[in-house]
Design goal:
Helices cover 87% and strands 0% of the residues. It is mainly α.
């Protein structure tokens, strides 16, 4: 093993030891899963990475959640109590997909097959591109 590889390896071990001391083995496993799913560097904390990701995604997520809720209320005449429950479940599902990318891939594949999700998204993106 070359000196640089050795240093990187030892830094990774030190990082893992620090996380395990602070948050236990479950915390270390969550950290490893998060970093693997997001290709996250060790010199930035999971908290910082999550804050940046959430900041960037906040507006897009609000657009999506607002459009979904408005569609349910106005177009489908869904009672507000059901829309509130839907939004709570929606937020919980976003967290699951953020931490469990394989769950996201399975659900995405199922929705593409069953409801044409991929085609609907592609059509939207093509229309956006055409309209500038």
């Amino acid at each position: 093993m070359k000196a640089k590889e050795q240093r990187i390896y030892l830094e990774g071990m030190a990082f893992a030891a620090k996380v395990a001391k602070e948050r236990g083995l479950d915390g270390l496993e969550a950290e490893m899963k998060f970093r693997g799913a997001n290709n996250a560097p060790l010199n930035v904390s999971m908290h910082e990475l999550t804050a940046v990701a959430r900041g960037r995604a906040k507006d897009e997520l609000l657009f999506v959640a607002t459009a979904m809720a408005e569609t349910m209320v106005e177009d489908m005449k869904t009672p507000p109590s059901i829309v509130r429950e839907f939004l709570a479940q929606f937020n919980a599902r976003v967290e699951i997909y953020r931490m469990e990318p394989e769950e996201f891939r399975k659900a995405y594949g199922k929705l593409c097959r069953n409801v044409g999700l991929n085609e609907a998204c592609r059509t939207f993106l093509e229309e956006e591109k055409e309209n500038g």
